[in-house]
């Protein structure tokens, strides 16, 4: 299996953002998806750094794709989406709006925020030009297996959410702005203070979700370290790692070692918790009772 | 043209109540996971659907069948059968969300009118026109993330009819793009047609203080004299940073009654009322109100005063995203 | 403060008091028979309960000194009236008027819940299924009671008349458009 790095979901300063891709040029990942997924207001802050980042990664031999926005409503968002096609890199469609701009016959990939739940949808996307699909994180292993089998005959690569806080919802409303008593139009970029999102806890102080502007993520970090063999057997060809502020390059190396059988799941788990001891892990969407469940020893 | 009132019916009795109360159109679903209100005790078996459509048609009303979950890999036949059976029952249209199911319906049931469900979260004219050109979609139910001027802008750029929610439950997340429920319970709107399902809800009432837990997570705590909300995740009470409260959305429901004239001006064809889980008495009352409102608008009479707050969740209403400050 | 769904009357304590001594066994038998009559005329109600058709429901009119245990039993329902604390899979509690009004389609169950006039405990899914199935059945308790015959028919009809009088909830099904 290969590793793909998904687009950074959070709002980082442009230098930090660019630094990630300099680092990833040396990381053992095959593919990098970059660009703004979550909020169109963030894009102007690092837009001019994107061409350099792409060049660095391509030079280092990485496959590169540019993500579309997850939810396209405003005029400027439609323009941003339409302009992706001029960038001369593969587009990762994360809202079907992008498809309206991709000419028939142009290959593209499909991100985890497009609803690919069944074979007919997969076949339709393949016919339209999809060569790679990262499945929605809530899919069960049983569904993944059926889709990966179908994908093989369609010549489509199947990827699943491998590590990182899971994108659970996207909204027209900005929760970071709401938390600070502001509207979205006057958000003053409240989300930039939380490089891994803001923890949302229940009334009983149980960690639960993560707030990231208009996006809501899981509180736990999805981690497929214990599921690699089953995913490989199911026909999955890549794991997607989602950028985080703490030692992301180290995390990429760790996953490469897990895939190569150099370290086992327990050692990987200890290493992940070594990066951030407060982290909770989950892999429950595959076949747990619920998404938040963890198959490892330190069950929630 | 008078604006079309599209009403929910979770049961045959609610369908009859809606039709008698003046619904131009009723929407409903089969009693299984093919629709997004797959709640215990709700929805229609095949015979009830045939009878319901016949009843509605005999009163001059239409019936739309919602098949708006995302078919499960390996089990698509269940959803395909629902489309066939909706057509056989005489449905005036099906409401679909999944690309694969739209493709299937366009290929094998070309004569059956296709509406795009709110679950498809089609939020701009480009993607709406794409659905129309690719799958022959004739109407789109707009996601509840748009303001009135944005709706007007969409209508200016598309021939596809638009239907908007005007009353009832309010999803704060883009629908069809939300897995909060399956993260906490394993069951999701997209896969199972349920959000924050009753099977995973526990209430505890101690001395009048009502606690609601979903999948073991405490979602609400309301004091004795406070109105109770649905135990829906996105309307739960949480803390982040140094703040505690309804971080995503207050326990309110949508009421855009007073925006009907603006929505008409914005080019909206149909007004949709949420609530297939509500009783026939609720349906009859809400439908009666909205029918009176659009009739008054058409005749140039003043709009009747609203009176629906007490039926609403948290007994408070909002105009939601239709007013831009909501965001 | 929650607004009341509408003004829901409480069974007057003065009239509820004598019910403390009312013999409950005959009432249980009468209500069981009654429930079976309903089962015969509304088979769809039990189909609609689906997987919940064999659950135990506690219906607790909070203004009366007893609770009702209802077992749909897949279409052969049993009713047991008791003064003792009783447990079931789901408990639905509220004033007699709220409960009857919901059965009759005069009140909306969710609205009663929002206003705290109705409380649900235990298996929430089962409670929802019962509510939805009953709402669809369009029951008319007076008409069903009138259909009863035998020695228990008269006392039951009397009890319904009393309930109707004391709660102000009509036990004949209202027309939908004039329910409120």
UniProtKB/TrEMBL annotation, chain A:
Required cofactor(s)? [4Fe-4S] cluster
What's a single GO BP term from this record? ubiquinone biosynthetic process
Pfam (any one): Peptidase_U32
Q: Which UniProt keywords apply?
A: 4Fe-4S, Iron, Iron-sulfur, Metal-binding, Ubiquinone biosynthesis
InterPro entries found in the cross-reference section: Peptidase_U32, RNA/ubiquinone_mod_enzymes, UbiV
- Name one molecular function that GO assigns to this entry: metal ion binding
**Residues reported in the UniProt entry to bind [4Fe-4S] cluster:** 39, 174, 187, 191
Annotated pathway: Cofactor biosynthesis; ubiquinone biosynthesis
Assembly, per entry: Forms a heterodimer with UbiU.
Purpose: Required for O(2)-independent ubiquinone (coenzyme Q) biosynthesis. Together with UbiU, is essential for the C6-hydroxylation reaction in the oxygen-independent ubiquinone biosynthesis pathway.
NCBIfam families documented for this protein: PRK15447.1
Family membership: Belongs to the peptidase U32 family. UbiV subfamily.
> What is the protein named?
Ubiquinone biosynthesis protein UbiV
């Amino acid at each position: 299996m290969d590793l793909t790095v998904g687009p950074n979901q959070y709002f980082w300063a442009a230098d930090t953002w660019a630094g990630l891709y300099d680092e990833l040029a040396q990381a053992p990942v095959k593919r990098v998806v970059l660009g703004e997924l979550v909020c169109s207001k963030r894009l102007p802050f690092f837009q001019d750094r994107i061409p350099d980042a792409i060049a660095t990664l391509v030079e280092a031999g990485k496959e590169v794709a540019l993500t579309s926005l997850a939810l396209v409503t405003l005029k400027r968002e439609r323009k941003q989406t339409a302009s992706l096609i001029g960038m001369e890199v593969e587009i990762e469609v994360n809202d079907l709006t992008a498809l309206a701009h991709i000419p028939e016959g142009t290959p593209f990939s499909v991100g985890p925020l497009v609803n690919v739940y069944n074979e007919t949808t997969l076949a339709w996307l393949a016919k339209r030009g999809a060569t790679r699909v990262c499945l929605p994180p809530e899919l069960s292993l049983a569904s993944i297996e059926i889709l990966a089998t179908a994908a093989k005959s369609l010549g489509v690569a199947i990827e699943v959410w491998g590590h990182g806080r899971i994108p659970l919802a996207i909204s027209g409303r900005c929760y970071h702005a709401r938390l600070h008593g502001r509207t979205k139009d006057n958000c003053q970029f409240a989300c930039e203070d939380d490089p891994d999102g803001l923890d949302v806890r229940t009334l009983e102080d149980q960690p639960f979700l993560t707030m990231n502007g208009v996006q809501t993520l899981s509180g736990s970090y999805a981690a497929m370290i214990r599921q690699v063999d089953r995913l490989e057997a199911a026909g999955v060809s890549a794991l997607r790692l989602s950028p985080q502020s703490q030692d992301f390059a180290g995390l990429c190396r760790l996953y490469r070692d897990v895939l190569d059988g150099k370290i086992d799941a327990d050692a990987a788990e200890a290493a992940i918790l070594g990066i951030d001891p407060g982290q909770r892990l989950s892999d429950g969407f595959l076949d747990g009772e619920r998404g938040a469940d963890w198959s490892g020893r330190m069950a929630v | 043209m008078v604006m079309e009132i599209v009403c929910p019916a979770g049961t045959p009795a609610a369908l009859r109540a809606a039709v008698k109360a003046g619904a131009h159109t009723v929407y409903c679903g089969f009693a299984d996971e093919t629709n997004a209100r797959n709640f215990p005790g709700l929805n229609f078996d095949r015979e009830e659907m045939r009878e319901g459509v016949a009843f509605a048609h005999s009163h001059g009303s239409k019936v739309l069948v919602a098949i708006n979950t995302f078919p499960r890999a390996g089990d698509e036949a269940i959803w395909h059968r629902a489309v066939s059976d909706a057509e056989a029952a005489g449905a005036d249209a099906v409401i679909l969300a999944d690309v694969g199911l739209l493709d299937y319906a366009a290929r094998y049931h070309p004569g059956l009118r296709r509406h795009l469900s709110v679950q498809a979260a089609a939020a701009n004219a480009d993607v709406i026109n794409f659905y129309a050109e690719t799958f022959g979609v004739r109407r789109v139910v707009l996601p509840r993330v748009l303001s009135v001027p944005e709706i007007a802008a969409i209508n200016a750029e598309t021939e596809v009819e638009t239907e908007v929610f005007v009353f009832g439950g309010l999803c704060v997340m883009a629908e069809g793009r939300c897995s909060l429920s399956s993260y906490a319970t394993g069951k999701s709107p997209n896969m199972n047609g349920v959000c924050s399902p009753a099977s995973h809800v526990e209430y505890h009432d101690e001395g009048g203080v009502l606690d609601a837990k979903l999948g073991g997570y405490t979602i609400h705590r309301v004091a004795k004299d406070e109105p109770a909300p649905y135990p829906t995740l996105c309307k739960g009470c949480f803390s982040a940073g140094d703040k505690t409260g309804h971080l995503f959305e207050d326990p309110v429901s949508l009421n855009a009654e007073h925006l009907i004239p603006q929505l008409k001006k914005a080019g909206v064809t149909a007004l949709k009322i949420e609530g297939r889980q509500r009783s026939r008495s609720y349906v009859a009352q809400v439908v009666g109100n909205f029918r009176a409102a659009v009739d008054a608008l058409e005749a140039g009479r003043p709009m009747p005063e609203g009176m629906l707050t007490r039926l609403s969740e948290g007994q408070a209403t909002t105009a939601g995203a239709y007013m831009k400050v909501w965001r | 403060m929650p607004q009341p769904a509408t003004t829901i009357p409480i069974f007057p304590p003065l009239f509820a008091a004598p019910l403390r001594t009312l013999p409950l066994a005959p009432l249980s038998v009468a209500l069981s028979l009654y429930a079976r009559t309903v089962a015969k005329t509304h088979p769809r109600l039990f189909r609609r309960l689906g997987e919940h058709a064999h659950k135990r429901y506690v219906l607790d009119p909070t203004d009366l000194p007893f609770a009702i245990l209802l077992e749909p039993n897949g279409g052969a329902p049993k009713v047991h009236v008791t003064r003792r604390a009783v447990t079931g899979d789901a408990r639905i509690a509220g004033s007699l008027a709220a409960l009857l009004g919901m059965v009759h389609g005069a009140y909306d169950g969710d609205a009663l819940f929002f206003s705290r006039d109705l409380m649900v405990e235990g298996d929430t899914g089962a409670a929802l299924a019962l509510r939805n199935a009953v709402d669809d059945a369009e029951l008319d308790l007076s008409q069903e009671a009138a259909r009863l015959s035998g020695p228990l028919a008269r006392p039951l009809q009397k009890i319904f008349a009393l309930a109707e009088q004391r709660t102000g909830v009509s036990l004949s099904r209202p027309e939908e458009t004039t329910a409120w």
